[in-house]
Amino acid sequence: MKDTVGILGGGQLGLMLAQAIDRLGFDTIIYESDGQSPCATRRAQVMPFLFTDVNKLKDFFSRTQHVTFDSENIPAAPLQQFAGQLIPSIEVLEISQDRAKEKQFLSKLQVNPVMHVVVPVGANVREAARAFGLPCIAKSVLGGYDGKGQFRLQSEADVARLPLDAAGGWVLEEVLALSLEISCIVARNETEELAFPIFENIHTQHILDFTLLPARVPAELQTQAKTTALQIARAIGLKGLLTVEFFVGRGRDGIEKLFVNELAPRVHNSGHVTLQACSLSQFDALARILTGVPLGHIAMSPGAFCMGQLLGEVWAAQGRTGGPLNLEALQFFPQVVDVFLYGKREARPGRKMGHFVVKEVSAEKALEVARAFRLALTQH
Amino acid sequence: MKDTVGILGGGQLGLMLAQAIDRLGFDTIIYESDGQSPCATRRAQVMPFLFTDVNKLKDFFSRTQHVTFDSENIPAAPLQQFAGQLIPSIEVLEISQDRAKEKQFLSKLQVNPVMHVVVPVGANVREAARAFGLPCIAKSVLGGYDGKGQFRLQSEADVARLPLDAAGGWVLEEVLALSLEISCIVARNETEELAFPIFENIHTQHILDFTLLPARVPAELQTQAKTTALQIARAIGLKGLLTVEFFVGRGRDGIEKLFVNELAPRVHNSGHVTLQACSLSQFDALARILTGVPLGHIAMSPGAFCMGQLLGEVWAAQGRTGGPLNLEALQFFPQVVDVFLYGKREARPGRKMGHFVVKEVSAEKALEVARAFRLALTQH
Fold first, then answer.
1. Complex ipTM
2. Which of A152, A296, B38, B207 is the most buried (most CB within 10 A)?
3. Closest approach of chain B CAs to the CA of A40, in angstroms?
4. Three-class SS of residue B341?
5. Does B254 touch chain A (CB under 8 A)?
6. pTM exceeds cut of 0.90
7. Taking Cα atoms as reference points, which of B48, B321, B14, B11 lies closest to residue A3?
């Protein structure tokens, strides 16, 4: 048990985190039921059981000192009896996996969440939507990610088509005139706290597509985002990592400002770029918190970076079903400083299969090169 | 077999290489008999058998496309029948693991190896040493690393104490007035070749202690070393990675120059710093060659770097037998941009257990900070 860390979830984020823990000389046990997951095919000590199997969880927790998770969409109830070992805490997990609790927490903290209304299970969501006013967005309270469980309601026809039931009920949100999206990852232990630089995130069909560093937003807004993220981390009593996603845009009041979108209490896909751009990556930061090593500080590499996600579509374009890609295009793109494929066996459309990082003189230029490189990959 | 790479050897070098192969979406199978090795405790797909077990080797090679090794001190004979899959080739392995063949090759190529004489098995090494002249160094032809199998002969008493037999016979070398040691890692596939920057290596008791980048040698000497390393790589028909170790110093003729010391056809401990200092690490370079991905080019990070090795003694000083270290000292050394522990269970004196990397404004300053950081680690 001593010197062993547990990770609930064995996707690409769990894999990268485990490698950071490796480097601190600790052992890692992964709890992941998918035998084809990035961790299962690469790592020793993977326990292939369901999150609801309390006996297996008991065994897992008895073999580990501290335990973290690579997704907030895991059942919290079976974890209650092991709460003392969880980093971040079970309270943080419960707030961030439940949109209703999350909105309540953010509203109480007055950090400007998007204007919203909670529609509990059993209440009539269609009537609630009409009362809230169109256009709006209906999101399921539980289980949504990458746009799953979300519906944009523009017209009465959309409202009439909206399913009545959603996991945990619904949250209705105003539609923003969006300028852009940013995220801030903060790390916190008992005596230290630090904020990673602000990332600009470009989503396509609700899935993170590109992350830019530096973000193309004014310095004051970046400072405001960092301050807000740290304020949330303190208020929630964070030990561990917390990613705060923000919108920059105009709501129904027409004033452009910063809105808190949602919280992810874990390493985040928008933070991949920290592996190249920062002396301490997001994975290193959480690994240090889990193993009691001081966080220290983050030094930035010069230059601008763009992380581009590689979805299943790229494999399909190459006539491949999974595994590696043809990377011949790399020879024409010296600005691509990293390619990281997750080794997933099945390249489904919209599935995150890998990412790459471009280094350039500006964020615009990096984004341009990233788009060109990804296009070149699909033409093989 | 498709999309699977094999590594013979599962130490820290094998582990870091495997992680680079992971990132290209390929699977990796490790062949390593030590169940406590860095790979065995961390990775899936480790085959725990001896290098002499031809049936198990057959199984291993049948499951992999290309195979490389993390040490040249492995028996070559059992690999003969699988030679077509080996990268680098079996010829490169045989030359670099046999000091007599290596010296012969370097002499023929006229790249200035240290003045030497080969003493075959059965010949009288003591007489040969007297004829070669003292002082000299006797090195076993096979199996030596980290100073193992080496004897410095200063006096007739040393000669009289020298064992008569050594694995594969002996090589006698002149003693140089050493200024410093450098290494150059070169990578080569069918159409591309590249040389990593020159590293300056400081050894303590024959074990690599610190690596500095940039090396504190004139630019002309660095160019000469790169040119020589590439010349050797071409002459040996290299596909893969080759580390060439050089001495800078004066031999019996009293003229300061560059001497080729020895060849290691693999990723090398002096190349750890490429993970921080270069856009493409030595592990990435070999991973790309093994998986058919273009090498591209290497961009350098600004600043100076020092890699410091962590031997078993540091664990002993902390009253630990293996695994993690107390890293509290990190908070006082923001210049330490990486700590990489290998997770070895048993911290023997002289055993490489981990390393760290310091980034500073100059090589001197980086070395100074590295010494101070390591000292601070021992005082916990």
1. 0.93
2. B38
3. 8
4. strand
5. no
6. yes
7. B321
